[in-house]
Write a structure and sequence with these properties.
single chain; 261 residues; alpha+beta; three-stranded antiparallel sheet; two-stranded antiparallel sheet; 7 strands; 18% strand
């Protein structure tokens, strides 16, 4: 049975944690409300800036792991999503803000890749799907001849993933990755298990479509920018932004916002 001192310590620790968590949320709110930060979002999103910054605050307040990251790294990651005009709601699957140690990092979802591809106007069709046990009839890696029979599905067990796109000029590409191929790629290239542990299926689809587009697709400037920022550790300080554009947010701006909380 816990002693009175133990109970007092537990209650005290709980209150301290609640105060700390509340302080973090207030700090993030103060930073998002600072004139320099809002100006940058308004330049990118116009009248939608307030709605987007509200989604940042909501995401931050609901993600305990994200609260361990430096607030400005969260905002910088969100700004990348804003420049690509992609929502950061994790349930939508277009873009995520992922914690890596004490820094947050932008990560593009497979739906984000599809969205950016469609915006180029060069793709007639593009998709990536799971392949279930029994559906795969034949796959030739050399000719890329893939034969699936969806009527032969035996179970809900996923054995692989296939990606496909067709350009408006008629060029087509099909790829197939077994689940083992996906796992090997994950072990070799993924720095964190965060995304995989939250949604393995979405990360697998992203792996397939990202590699397919990178090798054979037509990449717009936005898509090239997405490739260069996705899953690459950001070396900037927490008050910096890609391409040096975050320089408008000075140390004084951050200090002023922090003093508001």
């Amino acid at each position: 049975m816990a002693t009175n001192d133990t109970l007092k310590n537990q209650i005290s620790n709980k209150k301290n944690n609640q105060v700390a968590e509340g302080k973090q949320g207030t700090t993030m709110k103060g930073l998002l409300n600072s004139p320099a930060v809002m100006k940058r979002f308004e330049e990118v999103l116009g009248k939608r800036a307030n709605q987007f910054t509200a989604s940042i605050l909501s995401l931050y307040n609901n993600e305990k792991t994200l609260q361990k990251s430096e607030p400005m790294s969260v905002i910088s990651s969100a700004m990348i999503a804003a420049t690509l005009d992609l929502p950061i709601d994790k349930n939508l699957g277009y873009a995520w803000i992922v914690p890596y140690g004490n820094k947050a990092q932008f990560q593009l979802g497979y739906k984000g890749y599809i969205q950016l591809a469609l915006r180029t106007g060069q793709y007639r069709n593009i998709n990536v799907i799971e392949v279930y046990e029994g559906e795969l009839v034949k796959w030739n890696r050399l000719t890329e001849e893939l034969e699936l029979d969806f009527e032969q599905k035996k179970s809900d067990k996923v054995i692989g993933y296939t990606g496909y796109f067709e350009l408006i000029n008629g060029f087509r590409k099909t790829v197939y990755w077994s689940k083992a191929d996906i796992e090997k790629h994950k072990q070799k290239f993924s720095k964190s298990n965060f995304g995989w542990s939250n949604d393995w299926d979405a990360m697998a689809k992203k792996t397939v479509i990202r590699n397919m587009l990178n090798k054979w697709g037509i990449l717009s400037i936005d898509m090239q920018k997405a490739y260069s920022t996705d899953e690459i550790e950001q070396e900037q300080e927490s008050n910096d932004f890609i391409d040096g554009e975050w320089a408008e947010v000075s140390e004084d701006d951050i200090t002023e916002a922090m003093n508001e909380v």
